[in-house]
Amino acid sequence: MKQNKRTPRLTAFGAAAAVGILMMGAETGSSRQAEQVRPQQTQTAERAWQAAPALSPASPSDPLAERLKRLRLPHEAIPTAEALARQADLIVFGHLQSQVSAYPAGARIGAGELYHYVQTIVVRTVLRGGGASAPSAVKLVTDGIEPLPPASDPLNLTYTGPLAEGEYVFFLRRIPGTDLYALLNGWQALYPVLDGKLIALKQNGFAAYNDLTISGLQQKLRSSAAASPENP
Question: What DSSP string describes 108-157?
Answer without folding.
Answer: EETTEEEEEEEEEEEEEEEEEE--SS--SEEEEEEEEEESPPPTT-GGGG
